[in-house]
Predict the 3D structure of the following.
Amino acid sequence: MTPTRYSFEQDPARFIVEQVQAFVVDNPGNRLKDLDGSPLFEEPLVAFAEGEDPLFQDYRRIIGEFHLTPREALERSGTAGKSPGSVSVISWVLPIAKPTKLANRKETTGPSVHWNQVRWLGQALNDSLGKHVVGLLQEKGYQAMVPDQAPYFEVRQLANGSASNWSQRHVAYAAGLGTFSLSDGLITTKGIALRLNSVVTDLKLPASPRKYSSHTANCPFLVNGSCGACIQRCPAGAITAQGHDKLKCRDWLQSLHKTLLGKPGYMGRYAACGLCQTKVPCESGIPKVKATG
């Protein structure tokens, strides 16, 4: 296993970052064993958010009153017993590895086998990582839980599509990991092709800075109308200059489910897609905003 340099007692934040990174990089489950043995994910990005950040109250207005604050998530988990003194959120990005992105670039109507398997094998790895981080914190005497693995986690069907009561993208934005795209993804320093997860704890951790000027600062189209490559990549026509149509996207995923999941190598509850996250300028980093006019 990759050696860690910091102990929990020396620097809890650095210890957590190193533990998350080592868990993914060294994990035998981080390989597409039935394909080419390539990794699912590159080294994770890890950041922290203050549980009382006003953004979490804003999300109740932006997403819906049902969206939980970190304190609510921890208190409702059953691990608290009493209201915790401080609340922090650990958020991480699992960047999808290059071989999978290269495979998906070639597709025009649905996901490659690589992308499909990373979606579902990656979910299992991501869930295990959440439990691992919770275990590390609980061993040190702290409360910790993974909101999207809690009994009260839910996805609601709204008029414009589905929304959960714990949005990993919004949590990652609050932690300074990236900003939103025209396609509704999160553009990070490792790009938009990724998976996300988070843990809430009563361990006080230093909030990571948000090094962007707005919630759309990393998307050239939303900055000044340049780019728009994801519009052309979407086989469902679900991405336009007006944004991402969740209902069209959902219907397309359902049609892919019927056509792909019987084919060799494909797995999971649905096929996934990811075309708007590959063969686009934000695939593996933050694209430069080009001057217009």
